[in-house]
Amino acid sequence: MANSYSLLAALQNFLHQRGIEIEDLTADPMVRLMIDWFRLVPLDLLKGPSTAEALVFRYGGWSEGCATGFRFSLLRRITEPGADGADTDWFAGITLMFEPSRYANLVPFDTASSDWKSLDAFLAAVESSPAYNTLAGVQPMTVLLESGGLR
């Protein structure tokens, strides 16, 4: 059964196998790493033919209480239908946080890719985004492993 903990553990195992220290990541290697994880590591968490999987790319300003930042995220999402007919989305991925005022002019954006054939188009969309072009080589304030679930 999929959940946010098992998905996060799969990401952590992949990072460990690759010898990646997340604190050293910038946008370009983070994007390539997440695409490799999606493309090369099938998850045994996926049960049943109606479970869907996608990569989700999003960026934009973020604020919670007195904390603010500019988030640049690539997440792997698994969608499972529940017995009651409601879907649950589980996700895990990497988020780079940047100083927010410097990137306030970048309009929030998100897109997803759910099949292998569209990964090249998905990567092209990521690489052509204004945030990627601005942040590709910039060292973030912090790098986070992110996981959770939404119903």
Structure description:
The chain has helices spanning 4-18, 27-40, 119-127, 130-135, and strands at residues 52-64, 67-81, 87-98, 109-113, 142-150. By secondary structure, it is an alpha+beta fold. The protein has one domain (4-150). Strands 4-1-2-3-5 form a five-stranded antiparallel beta sheet. It starts with a helix and ends with a strand.
- Taking pLDDT < 50 over at least 5 consecutive residues as the criterion, the unreliable ranges are none
The main sheet orders its strands as 4-1-2-3-5
| Main sheet overview | 5 strands, antiparallel
CA-atom Rg in angstroms: 15 Å
Overall helicity: 25-40%
Alpha-carbon distance between the two ends? 16 Å
> Shape, please?
globular
Q: Helical element count? A: 4
Strand content: 35-45%
What is the structural class? alpha+beta
In the residues, how many domains can be counted? 1
Q: Residue-averaged pLDDT, rounded?
A: 86
List strands and helices in order, with pairings:
Elements: H1 4-18, H2 27-40, E1 52-64, E2 67-81, E3 87-98, E4 109-113, H3 119-127, H4 130-135, E5 142-150
Labels describing this entry:
single chain; 151 residues; alpha+beta; 5 strands; 36% strand
Briefly, what is this?
The protein is built from 4 helices and 5 strands.
